[in-house]
User: Fold this.
Amino acid sequence: LDIAIAFVKRYLDCGADDIELADHDGSVTDHHKAYEFFSLLLDPKEMGTGPDGRRYSDPKLYIAHFHTKNMASALRNAAAALKAGIIRFESCMSGIGGQPANMVDGVAIKGREGDYYSDHFNHGLISTEDLVTMFHEIGVDTGIDQEKLLALGREFRAEVLDTFAARQKQL
Assistant:
């Protein structure tokens, strides 16, 4: 964690407005470590103040980003980040984030067998629908109309993801 914290400080020292803190491959399965990391980021003594006078413990500087190699771990990590004080999260409609955007000649391309992204639909970014539902279940007011979001997610899966999956090709 020390290396990650040091890198965050160095990045913010460059003048970045914010930083996305990501588990891009869904490998963080210990939500206690996620909580420890995000708690360190929001600890004023640990993070200090930057050369521009910003408090590096300001939660507005950080965006939590979790992929779903294991959906339960991604949701636990999001809850751990929230508990630590993180207020900004990145998610994607129906969890399609990640490599599904790979296209060749207008055709979606699957990853190679053995690659992390060989199955795009099981390794995307945490689903907005799941994240908002979890937050509402634990009493967080997201400002999002959950029923409308869930309906939109169903439409998105039917109109976009099902079509995408059917047209996907293997190189």
Remarks:
- The chain has a mean pLDDT of 84.
- The chain has six helices and six strands.
- Residues 75 and 105 are 35 Å apart (CA to CA).
- The first strand starts at residue 19 and ends at 23.
